[in-house]
Amino acid sequence: MTTFLLVEDDRNDVLMVEMEFKRAPLPIRLVTVEDGAEAIHYLEGKGVYDDRYKYPIPDVILLDLKMPRIDGFEFLEWLRCKCDRSHRFIPVVVMSSSPLRCDVDRAYSLGANSYLVKPVDWNLFKARIKALGVYWSEHVEKL
Questions:
Q1: In angstroms, rounded to a whole number, what is the distance separating the alpha carbons of residues 15 and 140?
Q2: Strand 92-96 vs strand 60-63: parallel, antiparallel, or unpaired?
Q3: CA-CA distance, 7 to 58, in Å (whole number)?
Q4: Which of 73, 79, 92, 135 has the fewest CB atoms within 10 Å, i.e. the most exposed one?
Q5: So where are the chain's domains?
């Protein structure tokens, strides 16, 4: 089973990802947090996240950029430079509504593995989420 950590503050986007991962032909575990601060607590196993059976270390992180408290850029910087060494190489797929070149470049410079612009079209978004789940669950070797 592949575990995805979705770091996303938009409840509608969370619901879309949940629906598509449930439809995936492979077993996928999806855990969601609302912002970068909560994602840091999750990876550090702090508070409610200390139960690693219930909250396992993710195989892949799906990361929004524009969030309150700690945004996606700040989280990426923390993950790649400041967190426990055993977590620094967890693959990160940025999923943002921003197609701005400066955001794409900054995300990659901070260590994102992929950058996906969230399409406005619902069917296209569903197809991309499904493909993302299959790709990271079936075709990629995990850490």
A1: 25
A2: parallel
A3: 12
A4: 135
A5: 2-136
Kindly give, in sequence order, each residue whose CB lies less than 8 Å from that of residue 42, ignoring residues fewer than 6 positions away: 5, 31, 33, 49, 55
Report the topology of domain 2-136. Answer: Rossmann fold (3.40.50)
Cβ atoms 84, 43 nearer than 8 A: yes
Check: CB of residue 79 under 8 Å from CB of residue 43: yes
SS3 9: coil
**What is the residue type of 107?**
A
Q: Where are the beta strands (DSSP E) in 1-143?
A: 2-7, 28-33, 60-63, 92-96, 114-117
Say if residues 94 and 72 touch (Cβ distance below 8 Å). Answer: yes
pLDDT in tens, 84-143: 888 999 999 999 999 999 999 999 999 999 999 998 888 898 889 988 998 998 888 888
In the chain, the amino acid numbered 53 is: Y
The pair of three-digit structure tokens given for residue 8, joined into one six-digit string: 């996303």
- The Cα–Cα gap between 9 and 63 comes to 10
**pLDDT score of 70 more than 90:** yes
Rounded to whole angstroms, the Cα distance separating 89 from 67 reads: 22
Query: End-to-end distance of the chain based on CA atoms, in angstroms?
Result: 13
